[in-house]
Amino acid sequence: MFLLLTLLTYTPLLSSSSPSSRFLFLFDFFSLTFSFSFSTYPLKLRERFRTIHIKMGVDYYNVLNVNPSATEDDLKKSYRRLAMKWHPDKNPASNKKEAESNFKQISEAYDVLSDPNKRQIYDQYGEDGLKSSDVPTASETASSQQRNYSSVNNAGFRYYPRDAEDIFAEFFGASEKVFGGGGGGGRFKSAEAGGQTNRKTPVNTKAPAIESKLACTLEELYKGGRRKMKISRVVPDGFGKSKPVEEILKIDITPGWKKGTKITFPEKGNQEPGVTPADLIFVIDEKPHSVYKRDGNDLIVDKKVTLLEALTGITISLTTLDGKNLTIPVLDIVKPGQEIVVPNEGMPISKEHSKRGDLRINFEICFPSRLTLEQKTDLKRVLGGSDIGN
């Protein structure tokens, strides 16, 4: 009769517990029935059932996929992997509800098992015991040989769950930066922590921008084109550990870009916890050209001519930066330091694609180092009547 009454007493508890807990309860019930004498049975059975009752609840070790003997490193490794998998900002909207539930439970499991005091209480009394006030203090535990739990009242410990996002930020930094402000669009809050989480959201400092020169030929800046830059940077893997990755960045060069033009790739620097990745900036630099020099939107050519060519005329042949042949006849007498301008044969203007700068040709006259008497006589004869003022 006593066994029947005992079983009926704990039936409501069994109906709300998991199948494994119900099996354990029934197994212990019948085991204790046959292992203890009738005189000691009621006391020991009640004590055993009290322990089973307290330990019913969430199995935090199972949540983190670790053994009860797991070390601190084991807990961290498992948390990193599971938190990255189930963070709500990483999961699609269709899976958001499940992700939020799993993420909260993973965070709570790590919060409890990573704290020696909480873990000790949980190991001894389970989730229900941890979250209730019906848990002995340290001094009471030491002297609780008689297991008189009905008179225990712990005023020295109260379990308050930490915010799931705060735990996540300790490992990876703010989730908005880790996931680029994705799915959730903001800071995810743990419902259990709700009223008592007045902590400030960690504010990440941004790493200084990284600048690198991008040397381009004048032909590239004239015609435009695409450059592919291979970079290597450090990012966290699925377990939160840093790993080097390589990435190809594509830069479309606009015709007419000038030296000093900057191309920015936001947050393409190394990803480190608590730090917003640096911007990666490429700065255009111009390689020297064998024929042309650049002055703003104009191209400059220095041309040496002989005295004879300066006096009698010359035809200049140039190959433009886009490969065309350009012929420029110079029929007038060229004077020292003279410059002639060929319109619209300079660099493209990046903001006005239909317009170009000018081509400027500067002449340098090469005088002969010496003349024979006969040459001097001929020159005097030819030039002797020239008007110096013209």
UniProtKB/TrEMBL annotation:
Residues 1-16 form the signal peptide. Residues 127-147 are annotated as: Disordered. Keywords: Chaperone, Signal. The keyword Signal applies. This is DnaJ homolog subfamily B member 1-like. Residues 59-126 form the J domain. PANTHER family: DNAJ HEAT SHOCK FAMILY PROTEIN, DNAJ HOMOLOG SUBFAMILY C MEMBER. SUPFAM superfamilies: Chaperone J-domain, HSP40/DnaJ peptide-binding domain. Residues 134-147 have a biased composition (Polar residues).
